[in-house]
Write a structure and sequence with these properties.
The complex is a heterodimer of chains A (about 80) and B (about 150). Chain A is mainly α and about 80 residues long. Chain A contains 2 helices and no strands. Chain A is elongated, with a radius of gyration of 18 Å. Chain B is mainly alpha-helical and about 150 residues long. The longest helix of chain B has about 40 residues. The chains are: A mainly alpha (about 80), B mainly alpha (about 150). Chains A and B meet through helix 1 and helix 2 of A and helix 1 and helix 2 of B.
């Protein structure tokens, strides 16, 4: 039986989580938040949104893998043709 | 069934979609985009990353929603008594569908036989007590009518 834990949906979730981390750090890496000054509205938005996105994607990814592993351990049909 | 996994994925992708939309539209809401002239780097970054995350969320939403709807359709088909073979008994319906369903339906007679034994254990003393009551009443009425048959 074919098992597809790393399905396209899970890949996309992981990539979106990485993008969230990138968005959170981008104000500092791209230099539009000057060090030592108060955070601008754009920086606050990017950091908050990026971290929230990364957390949501991490939760979704772990839950997906945990449910798949639980189905396999319970003796169910863990293979999925689905994302 | 993988409905739990798909539901988690659906929930995650909807949140990603909303976050992407917020990043995309936040550039205008926060006033990062000027009315005229070239866009600053922060606005370009926010709109670009927001559009990318929105697209990724939308794609993940489609990827998770398609198998979930297919699974729900299968569940509805197998669980709906008004289906094409809805008039058949459950065990016969399962036998018609697949050999796997038949093998899963096999433990049912064992459970029902055990339940029947339990029911017999409970009902047997009650039935015997009722029978002895009837016999005793008949005997009493026969005695009262002095050998004549009791009226029914």
């Amino acid at each position: 039986m074919r098992r597809r834990w790393l399905s396209p949906g899970l890949w996309l979730t992981g990539l979106t989580g990485m993008a969230g981390l990138w968005v959170a750090g981008a104000p500092f890496w791209l230099g539009y938040q000057v060090a030592g000054t108060a955070w601008t509205a754009a920086t606050k938005t990017d950091v908050a949104t990026g971290l929230a996105l990364a957390a949501v994607c991490a939760f979704g990814g772990f839950a997906h893998v945990a449910l798949a592993a639980g189905a396999v351990l319970a003796g169910g049909r863990g293979g999925s043709s689905a994302p | 069934m993988h409905a739990g996994r798909h539901l988690v994925g659906l929930f995650t992708s909807v949140l990603c979609l909303l976050a992407g939309l917020w990043l995309l539209l936040g550039a205008w809401i926060l006033g990062l985009v000027p009315q005229s002239g070239a866009w600053p780097g922060v606005a370009v970054f926010n709109v670009g990353s927001g559009a990318g995350i929105t697209l990724a969320g939308l794609l993940a939403l489609i990827l998770y929603a398609r198998p979930l709807t297919a699974e729900l359709a299968v569940t509805q088909e197998t669980g709906d008594p008004s289906g094409p073979d809805g008039a058949l008994p459950l065990r016969r319906r399962a036998r018609r569908r697949s050999p796997l369903a038949t093998s899963q339906a096999l433990p049912a007679p064992v459970a029902s036989a055990k339940a029947r034994d339990d029911a017999e254990d409970v009902l047997l003393p009650i039935a015997s007590a009722l029978l002895s009551d009837i016999v005793r009443q008949r005997g009493g009425s026969l005695q009262a009518t002095d050998g004549k048959e009791a009226p029914r």
